[in-house]
Automatic annotation (TrEMBL), chains A, B:
Superkingdom assignment: Bacteria
Segments forming a coiled coil: none
Keyword Signal belongs to the record: no
PROSITE patterns: PDH_ADH
Domain annotation Prephenate/arogenate dehydrogenase: ranges: 12-305
Pfam families linked: PDH_C, PDH_N
Organism expressing this protein natively: Paraburkholderia denitrificans
Membrane-spanning residues: 12-30
UniProt entry keywords in alphabetical sequence: Membrane, Oxidoreductase, Transmembrane, Transmembrane helix
InterPro entries: 6-PGluconate_DH-like_C_sf (IPR008927), NAD(P)-bd_dom_sf (IPR036291), PDH_C (IPR046825), PDH_N (IPR046826), Preph/Arog_dehydrog (IPR050812), Prephen_DH (IPR003099)
Name assigned to this protein: Prephenate dehydrogenase
Annotated Gene3D superfamilies: 6-phosphogluconate dehydrogenase C-terminal like domain, NAD(P)-binding Rossmann-like Domain
Length: 312, 312
């Protein structure tokens, strides 16, 4: 199997911008499976990439400040992965484009796709066909290179949002990279991706942060936190996520997120009316259908590979 | 220690109305620790109490349909625990009061307190001093007698909301029962209790049910569930809770819950404006203070014994 993966997907040079949890885990995974040659890490700050070098995640550590090293990093690159916060996409691509060779494919790991594609079109212009947008659905509560794991992507979905300009072989090459890391790949449009993740990921994060903020702002916050138990713990686990990342996601996926937030406010209006008027039947019906859907979701494995348009 | 507990808290007969997760776990725990004599289980339906009898959780199984058995159950009882859904409180107490002896204390395990106290006053009248309202902060995703555990209360908070009519010894006796089951006891007013739990428990449940309902109602529900991952899983774990129980809680704690829901809607309006106007600084500040509070809460053990007015 490992031999198949390597023969189906050989490449010699991978360049990762942002060697944290996401980029570092891909590097570890591909190296462990013998699916990549040299891995170059490029960071905003020297300390992060140097730590990745020490940990053996990458072979060469480069910072954006060093133009010559950047040029050198991109020379002969097979694949460039952007694994920095999505707000940096345009700037990074503008730094990359002068050195981008014709055979190099660029992909990303951003949680939002329409904005990333806009940024890529602005930065890459006529070379947009070299950019294949992607989103691995994997993460951990902790972030940074120390949290990287070689098995992070095993069995996880990776969504690719191919552009009309992408050659099918280019999309397949990026998909094969993720499959080599153990992931299951599928494709959908960027608009569909952004709607789906606004609903199942971005909105819950916003709602979780909002609940903690509300308790914090209340006069008896200390007492409330003292008696918060298991329900609060699970509901707010994602409120311990990176503020910078989630600020960027909210702004990058603004349109889809606002639509979900407005629909949610509508749900709360409906629930409020049922509570206020004592409409127990309406409450029980809503709770029961939610419970049934949540239980069914859990029973089929908590997540499921989309059969929308799978690559494989 | 166990010897101390028993000598500080000897009783011969415990009657539990509703032998499910909550009532069953208390029975198992007290029996295992030798802190109770006979345990009588009273249920709405024969099958549940009979199953508890088979499992050795109780010594006698009684149903509400059998008036003579009910009278017998309450004869010489030291403590009566109501562990049925809160909406049944008044009916149960009306059934109990004709047989309630002067030495018997009644307590409950309901998630809401003001409504339970209203129901108790209506049913018990001049004998209200015998009722000590309580709420063990413990639970599991599964319910029913099969889910009962002897260690469910170990290290958990139990909140008592003493009435002005309660003798201090009566409150202490109920507190001692919970401590014998391994719990840590504290007291607060019913109004304070209902505000605290509306914020940290009831509101998150409503929000979690609402999110699943919103996804269900959307045209691409199937695709969304397919790509829902860890954040969704944790945020919606409590949406698998009992619809009947949560309907009752919402109605029973209507006033405090509506206040929290309105405050939350205000939070969402604030967040919506920040997203809509692209106010990244406001978003990041809100997310950062929530993350800090959530992380601090986790680090101090996820919950903490209230020092508001501890019994011990």
């Amino acid at each position: 199997m490992s031999g198949d993966v390597v023969s189906a997907f050989p490449f010699n040079k991978l360049v990762i911008f942002g060697v944290g949890l996401i980029g570092g885990s891909l590097a570890l995974s591909l190296r462990e499976r013998g699916a990549t040659g040299r891995v170059i890490g490029v960071g905003r700050h020297a300390h992060a990439v140097e730590r990745a070098l020490e940990l053996g995640v990458i072979d060469v550590a480069t910072t954006l400040a060093d133009e010559a090293a950047l040029a050198d990093a991109l020379k002969g690159a097979d694949i460039v992965l952007l694994a920095a916060p999505v707000a940096q996409t345009r700037t990074l691509l503008e730094r990359i484009v002068p050195y981008l060779e014709a055979q190099t494919l660029v992909t990303d790991a951003g949680s939002t796709k329409s904005d990333v594609i806009d940024a890529a079109r602005a930065a890459l212009g006529a070379r947009i066909a070299q950019f294949v947008p992607g989103h691995p659905i994997a993460g951990r509560e902790s972030s940074g290179i120390e949290a990287a794991l070689p098995d992070l992507y095993v069995g996880r979905n990776v969504v690719l949002c191919p552009l009309p300009e992408n050659a099918p072989q280019a999309v397949e090459r990026i998909a094969a990279m993720w499959r080599a890391a153990g992931a299951v790949t599928g494709t959908m449009s960027a608009a569909q991706h952004d709607r789906v993740f606004a609903a199942v990921s971005h909105l819950p994060h916003v709602l979780s942060f909002a609940l903690v903020d509300q308790i914090l702002a209340s006069p008896d916050a200390e007492l409330k936190f003292s008696f918060a138990a298991g329900g609060f713990r699970d509901f707010t686990r994602i409120a311990a996520s990176s503020p910078e990342m989630w600020r960027d996601v909210c702004l990058a996926n603004r349109t889809a997120l606002l639509a979900e937030l407005d629909a949610y406010t509508g749900e709360l209006v409906k629930l409020r009316a049922a509570i206020d008027t004592g409409d127990g039947a309406a409450l029980e019906a809503l709770f029961a259908r939610s419970r049934e859907a949540r239980t069914a979701w859990q029973e089929r494995g908590g997540r499921r590979v989309a059969d929308a348009s799978p690559d494989k």
